[in-house]
Specification:
38% of the residues lie in helices and 12% in strands. It has two domains: 111 residues, no CATH class; 85 residues, no CATH class. The strands form two sheets. A three-stranded parallel β-sheet has the order 1-4-5, with no helix packed on it. It has 215 residues and is of the alpha/beta class. The protein is globular and about 55 Å long.
């Protein structure tokens, strides 16, 4: 008997099921956040801040809970698990159900145009990050690998905290337990550059825990 194969096409959160309901119950909020460039997973599904975890009421760590996350569940007894994604998925944070081992992931169509972009951030803005901003700016001016330069000088938790204070962003504080009205207000008032810098700090904070010297 040949090994079984399971192929799953991963649909977007706003994809409608047979009963014409979106996979994500909060698909209207998803559209607003996506249009503003705000990550949906941490804002609406699950977010960990320090020792505290915020979850959507429809989210479940065991099986995903909602129809959107149930797509990602795989059968460990099946020999070949394949997922097919839209190209936009390459630019999103992997959820915990994507940590499972896959045999093959297929990304549909060309992805360059949907993933690449340019955002100019001036030196004055980086200086608002305090000591860490000075380290980043110096590395960029000297064309040095950013992560290696940051790791060489720390950064300490105090530097990260100081940097976040220098770039206030309501969008970066959105979590899945917030009232929908508050989420909408935070999304509409967010500063794209400040949010991008918060994302940079998140990436640096994660990457310095690894042994890599380049992002």
């Amino acid at each position: 008997m040949e090994p079984r194969t399971h192929v799953q096409v991963i649909r977007g959160r706003d994809h409608e099921t047979e009963d014409q309901k979106p996979l994500c119950t909060k698909s209207d909020l998803v559209k607003i956040l996506s249009a503003k460039g705000i990550g949906v997973y941490g804002a609406l599904c699950k977010r960990i801040v320090g020792e505290k975890t915020y979850k959507c009421e429809y989210y479940s760590d065991s099986d995903g809970g909602c129809a959107y996350y149930k797509q990602f569940k795989i059968d460990e007894n099946i020999a070949l698990n394949i997922r097919i994604y839209q190209q936009q998925a390459l630019g999103t944070i992997r959820n915990q159900f994507e940590e499972q081992k896959l045999n093959l992931m297929v990304v549909d169509e060309s992805y360059y145009d949907s993933l690449l972009g340019e955002l100019k951030i001036g030196a004055a803005k980086l200086n608002k990050l305090g000591e860490l901003g000075e380290i980043i700016l110096k590395a960029l001016e000297n064309d040095k690998p950013l992560l290696a330069a940051v790791k060489k000088h720390g950064p300490t938790g105090k530097q990260i905290k100081q940097a976040r204070k220098g770039i206030p962003s309501k969008a970066s504080k959105i979590n899945p337990t917030m009232d929908e009205v508050i989420i909408r207000n935070h999304a509409h008032s967010h500063n794209k550059i400040n949010l991008s810098l918060h994302t940079l700090l998140d990436v640096l904070e994660t990457e310095i825990k690894t042994g890599r010297d380049k992002i």
